[in-house]
Every structure is written in C-alpha cells, then in structure tokens.
C-alpha cells in the first residue's frame, strides 16, 4: 500500500500515513487544488514530515520516479535513527 502519492490519494489513504492526522490530511486535500505539492509545502502544513516522508510520494520526492522495496525503506528508517536491527538486550 505504501508509498502513497499525496497528490492523487483520497482522504482515507492520506490519513493512514504515519505522522499525518485528520486536520493535516484535510490541508493536503485543500492545497493540492492549486497545484502539485512539494516538500517545503508539506513541511509548512504542520505534519510530522520526518516520520511521514518514508510512506508518501510528493512532486520532488527523492524516490518519486521509482518504487522502493519495503526492505530498502526499512533500512533507510533504521539508518536515519542509527538503530542496529539486531541489538543485544541490556539485561540477560
């Protein structure tokens, strides 16, 4: 289902994106009447862009020209947060 194109998706699809709430989804739908949405416009709308950027496609998205595999998206999220996927437990 992901990534979702915010320039074409309906309200129910946009609201499923992590970091976008009900009010932000309505802002997106209203704003795209004036043209395709870009990154700087989405950031100004008050969404949690750093969380949502991995699950949506917009006009100037780095991967808007091609589809990323879910494993690649997972790697980017883990790398951005600097989390080691197989971290050992602290208390054994």
Number of E-type strands: 2
The tally of helices reads: 5
- What is the helix fraction of residues, given as a range? 25-40%
Instruction: Record the strand order, biggest sheet.
Output: 1-2
Report the radius of gyration as a whole number of Å.
15 Å
Unreliably modeled segments: none
Beginning-to-end CA distance, first to last residue:
38 Å
Describe how the helices and strands are arranged.
Layout: E1 4-5, H1 11-14, H2 22-31, H3 39-44, H4 49-52, E2 56-57, H5 70-81
Parallel strand pairs: 1-2
Q: If you had to describe this structure to a student in words, what would you say it looks like?
A:
The protein has 92 residues and is mostly helical. Helix content is 39%, strand content 4%. It has five helices and two strands, in the order E-H-H-H-H-E-H. The chain has helices at residues 11-14, 22-31, 39-44, 49-52, 70-81, and strands at 4-5, 56-57. It has a two-stranded parallel sheet with strand order 1-2. The protein is elongated. The chain starts with a strand and ends in an 11-residue tail after the last helix. 15% of the residues are buried. The model has no long low-confidence stretch (mean pLDDT 81).
């Amino acid at each position: 289902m992901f990534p979702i194109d915010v320039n074409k998706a309906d309200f129910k699809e946009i609201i499923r994106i992590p970091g976008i709430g009900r009010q932000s989804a309505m802002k997106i739908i209203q704003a795209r009447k004036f043209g395709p949405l870009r990154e700087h416009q989405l950031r100004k709308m008050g969404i949690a862009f750093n969380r949502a950027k991995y699950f949506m496609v917009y006009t100037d998205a780095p991967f808007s020209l091609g589809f990323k595999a879910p494993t690649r998206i997972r790697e980017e999220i883990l790398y951005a947060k600097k989390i080691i996927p197989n971290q050992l437990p602290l208390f054994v």
